[in-house]
Write a structure and sequence with these properties.
By secondary structure, this protein is α/β, with parallel strands linked by helices. The protein folds into three domains: 75 residues; 176 residues, 3-Layer(aba) Sandwich (Rossmann fold), CATH 3.40.50.300; 76 residues, Helicase, Ruva Protein, domain 3, CATH 1.10.8. It is built from 17 helices and six strands. A six-stranded mixed sheet has the order 1-3-4-5-2-6. α3 runs antiparallel to α4, α14 packs across α15 and α16 crosses α17. It binds adenosine-5'-triphosphate (ATP) and magnesium ion. The site of adenosine-5'-triphosphate (ATP) has 17 residues, from α8 and α16. The site of adenosine-5'-triphosphate has 17 residues, from α8 and α16.
């Protein structure tokens, strides 16, 4: 293994140690995590340190090795040089309960208020450093509740967390699970939580309100209560390495007992003009937008969700491509946004 050789195959054995114990541990951890970027960064750190402490040849060799390995993985790896995607396909009964994907979404693709993105970055840091936290008896944040109106980025956040951590994203549609298998839901939930324990991934319980409705309200009270209670138990007992996310539009409907079981609640809201502009700039980044007057477009986007803005941008982008210009016209973008706004308004009436 190249990584192992990096440490052994050098003058390091004969001379004073040039890598600290922490660096060696971090190298092994990043290798175990398959986190190549971090692995290379630490190796380069060791090289820099070696150069500073007079081990010039070792530093040079190490840099050379890292460059070689990087070039090789770029040449042989799929797509942009990332590792082969591990296959985790739900089988048997589980297949009907979970769908799996390997999203490429990243945090930079999302336009979010600073406070929210800082909190999500914190989740990522805790996940990446989970071994270090665990060594000190601490556990990373991993049970998160995402709350907010439609189209504001809850499902996208699940994809971005999975994308950033190179984990599979498993989605569990609770409404299907409950209505289809009324009496058996608790048993199915157990299967899902077994999967959560055995296969590390991001698990998204989408449309969580189906399960999280205030206990004691609604028709099938007894059944829903049993299901909710077993969900709460499973969630509480779950001390796996997976990330468990609940997403819902209706915070008002959710049971207090649920909130306590999550490590954190993240609130999503309709975009401000600044965020709307970021969504549009991101969506149209590959085209010529010199004709766009962003403040005018932002005003036209008022009242629309991130998802609706993204769709309007797509329409304007298609127009640009179909007109063979690749130039996004301000008027066309504003028209696409206004069209969505009026569809919105008539749906509300
Ligand atoms: N914060 C955001 N930044 C950039 N794009 C966004 C954002 N939120 C949503 N979008 C765009 O809208 C699409 C739909 O968003 P998403 O599915 O995450 O919404 P949601 O909050 O899960 O909505 P729902 O409550 O209806 O499930 C995304 O795939 C993305 O294109
Ligand atoms: Mg969603």
């Amino acid at each position: 293994m190249t990584q192992g050789r990096l440490l052994i195959n050098s003058e390091m054995n004969q001379r004073a140690a040039v890598a600290t114990a922490d660096q060696v541990k971090a190298l092994i951890r990043s290798h175990a995590d398959g986190d190549d970027t971090r692995f290379y960064a630490i190796a380069m750190q060791v090289a820099a340190q070696a150069a500073r402490s007079g081990h010039g040849k070792f530093a040079l060799d190490l840099r050379g090795l890292v460059d070689q390995v990087k070039a090789r993985s770029k040449a042989t790896g799929p797509g942009n040089g990332s590792k082969p995607v591990p296959l985790a396909q739900p089988r048997g009964e589980l297949a009907g309960l979970l769908t799996v994907g390997y999203p490429k979404t990243r945090m930079v693709d999302m336009a979010l208020p600073e406070v929210l993105s800082a909190r999500l970055e914190r989740v990522l840091i805790e996940q990446r450093e989970r071994y270090r936290l665990r060594e000190h008896g601490l556990s990373p944040m991993r049970k998160l509740l995402l709350v907010g109106p439609p189209g504001t980025g809850k499902t996208m956040t699940a994809a971005a967390l999975a994308g950033e951590l190179c984990l599979p994203l498993f989605s569990i549609q609770l409404d299907g699970l409950i209505t289809k298998y009324m009496g058996e839901t608790a048993a199915k939930l157990r299967l899902v939580f077994d999967a959560i324990r055995s296969t590390r991934g991001v698990y998204l319980f989408d449309e969580f309100d189906a399960l999280g409705g205030e206990r004691g309200s609604g028709n099938d009270v007894g059944e829903i209560r049993r299901v909710l209670n077993s969900f709460l138990q499973f969630l509480e007992q779950d001390d796996s390495d997976s990330i468990v996310l609940g997403a819902t539009n209706h915070v008002g409907l959710l049971d207090r007992a649920l909130f306590r079981r999550f490590h954190a609640v993240f609130e999503y809201s309709a975009p401000t003009a600044e965020i709307a502009t970021r969504v549009m700039r991101g969506r149209l980044a590959l085209l010529d937008t010199s004709n766009v007057e962003w403040h005018v477009a932002a005003r036209a986007a008022e009242g629309l969700s991130h998802a609706e803005i993204a769709m309007a941008c797509e329409q304007a982008a298609k127009n640009a491509i179909l007109n063979h210009t690749a130039i996004v016209r301000n008027a066309e973008l504003v028209a696409a946004l206004s069209e969505r706004s009026s569809a919105h308004a008539s749906a509300r009436d």
